[in-house]
Amino acid sequence: MTSHKINLCWILTVLMLSSCGKDPDLGTSPSSSVYDVRISPLTNLIVGIGNTISFSATPVDSSNQPLTVGIEWTVLNPTIVTIDGNGVATSLKAGTTTVIAKAGNQEATAVVEVWDAPPLDTYTSGEIYQGRNGYVEYIPGDLPLILSAPHGGNICPDEIVDRTYGSIGSCSSTGSDTNTDPLTRTVRNAFLQATGRAPHIIILKLARPKLDANRDVTEAAQGNLFAKNTWSEYHGFIDVAKDTISKEFGFGLYMDMHGHGHSVPRIELGYLLSKTDLQTINLDLTYMINKSSVKRLASVSGIDFTDLIRGPQSIGGLLEQLGIRAVPSDPDPAPVGDEKFFSGGYSTRRHGSRDGGLIDGIQFEHHFTGLRDMPSNRLLYANVLIQVLRTFLDVHYGWSIPAS
Fold it and tell me: Fewest Cβ atoms closer than 10 Å to its Cβ: which of 6, 23, 131, 211?
């Protein structure tokens, strides 16, 4: 397999350029003369051609007091980026240009570099595609399945300062998510061996102190330009996989692969339903369906929502039948007492079908011992998961994985 370095993001490095002749004695009162223009944002990231970013600019006087003065927005090369009178810039094609905010005789500029992603049809199943510096890896597949691993990385570059809040972790250890990277790769390879076809996989290689991709960008990157770029690449690759699958199959399943260190050794399946939700006897309630990450599947599967989540033909029920404990399932419908449970995070919300789309999502929280602790156990689990997913796709989506 070959490796291709690509970027899915705009990297906008805004340079505050001091204008010449900033003498407050311009023949008018300093309080009413434009002495400087402050442009914002200083840095930002945008995914893909055709997206927008909103710039703002504040004229100030020599006392650094804001002035009510109109801003004239222009760009040096409008074939790369256009901008309207409100400072909203739209990318048109790859290249570099400059956004200019002018007030009175003063102006500030932002250098905008647009990196275009390859067209969807340039992604080849089985080849390796990487983001900047190899912080993200995407291997396209040819099944209606996507697996992502956001917390198994261990790269700790100096160019990204450590995050200061949220779940931070350590650069020396992947913590409870240990081996989720090789687990995800093992599942892909086992699928290929068993069926001749493979799911799409997206792997984040950065350690969690540098980026937590299972959070919104504010908490995930905490303002670092390179972390924000990687976050956009990671979710951009998932979006590419979703778009490819939606066009080819008209449906799909997204699986966010995690590890947990809870006291009960079982797989926890997150559908965005809380522990309290699952403790409800009947899940066939409109608000339950609408908040779930499999909302679309619930509308087409033909079985009650309760059975879809924890019946014999649910993911959990099928895992239990093959000897792997899982919650929710028919033998284990909900966590009880003080048992901890992960119900699904940012990625499951974003990439599942709660808010629309053709791709359903589930967060998979795997226990360690006997499942992801060593290569042999990872392979055993991968082969069980293949059986489960083949049945699940057939029963609920009416689609069978063709023979190799």
Answer: 23
136 and 97 inside one domain: no
Task: Let me know: does 182 contact 220? Beta carbons within 8 Å.
Answer: no
Tell me which H or E stretch contains 105.
none
| Phi/psi of residue 320, nearest 5 degrees | -60, -40
Strand partners, 353: none
Q: What CATH number is attached to the domain comprising 34?
A: 2.60.40
Q: Sign of the C-alpha dihedral, residues 313, 316, 318, 321?
A: negative
Beta bridge partner(s), residue 203:
137, 149
> In angstroms, rounded to a whole number, what is the distance separating the alpha carbons of residues 114 and 43?
13
pLDDT band of residue 366 (cuts 50, 70, 90) is very high
Domain membership of residue 402 (yes or no) is no
Is residue 213 a contact partner of residue 233, using CB atoms and an 8 Å limit? no
Whether 90 and 192 map to the same domain: the answer is: no
User: Residue 380 to residues 169, 233, 287: CA-CA distances in angstroms?
Assistant: 29, 31, 37
Residue 403 maps to a domain: no
Q: What is the largest CA-CA distance in the chain?
A: 85
Query: How far is residue 285's CA from residue 292's CA, in Å, rounded to a whole number?
Result: 11
Burial, 282: exposed, middle or buried (Cβ in 10 Å; 0-12, 13-18, 19+)?
A: exposed
Residue 253 belongs to domain spanning: 121-397
Report the distance separating Cα 358 and Cα 253, nearest Å: 9
The answer for residues whose C-beta is within 8 angstroms of residue 240's C-beta and 6 or more apart is: 8, 117, 120, 123, 138, 140
The answer to whether 142 and 136 have CB atoms below 8 angstroms apart is no
What tokens were used for 342?
A: 């992960």
In a domain, 57, yes or no: yes
Confidence at 10, pLDDT banded by 50, 70, 90? very low
| Residues 190, 246 within the same domain | yes
Q: Model confidence over 115-162: pLDDT tens digits?
A: 655 555 578 899 998 888 889 999 999 999 999 999 999 999 998 999
DSSP run (H or E) holding 189: helix 180-195
Give pLDDT tens digits for 235-294.
989 999 999 999 999 999 999 999 999 999 999 999 999 999 999 999 999 999 999 999
